[in-house]
Predict the 3D structure of the following.
Amino acid sequence: MKRFFCAAMLLTASATTACADAVAGAPRTILFIGNSFTFGANSPAHYYKPETVTDLNGPGATGKTVGGVPAMFKAFTKQAGLDYTVSVETVGGKGMDFHYAEKRALIDKPWDVVVMHGYSTLDQANPGNPALLIQSAKQMTGMLRARNPKSEIWLDATWSRADQTYPEGKPWHGKPIQQMGRDIAAAYYQAAKDAKVTGVVPVGLAWNRAFDTGFADDNPYDGIAAGKIDLWSYDHYHASIFGYYLEALMVFGKVTGKDPLSLGDKESVAEDMGFAARETHALQPIAHDQMQSR
């Protein structure tokens, strides 16, 4: 059964108002700021329908613009009857501090919605230390809200990296795979509180739910168990198309206030990517359940 939820799932009065506007079909601008975890490196997401979004950095070395999670989000909103103008500004291996310092000319505009995230270990030089994330989230939010005080700003809390957990000598070695995701989420919730943003998109916690339910394999280093999917790509660092799809579902649910289950069995991105019915049927409920949880 398709379900719908809105204000109860969002965190502030401004987000509730924005949700009502989106449901009514009012066109809204949204900017995604991030790195390879946004543009979908190592997967078919990378160049998925780039014509549906505006890549503010223009064509890269390949001569192509990116689609990534923003293009999947655009496809979801179109299916839901919502009107979003989607832009993306991404640079591989960089956090919000880089975008604030180097990309202000592109991003310092009055966006209706912004979705952004930092480096995958919080701080590349000091893995697990949330200080840089907290500082840069506050700087970015101050800049964006100066342009549009009503702007919705969402922090996209990323996932556990198997390559930072299973090999010896890595920061999360010896801990369960879910721990990095929990640590990342805790840092993002603290950054959200300090910066007074709209809320957090807990993507890493949704990944943890996929592990805990047995749908996704939690250790790609020992092979993928029969009947399970791999949320990571071949480097055990970036996401597979399944991982990016789950990220896009979470962003869709949080930003629009619509239940990911409302996309239904014939969701077009899943069909474009060749998902089996059971895969679509599992990923949408995982996103739904995680949004109900937090």
Q: What stands out?
A: The first strand starts at residue 28 and ends at 34.
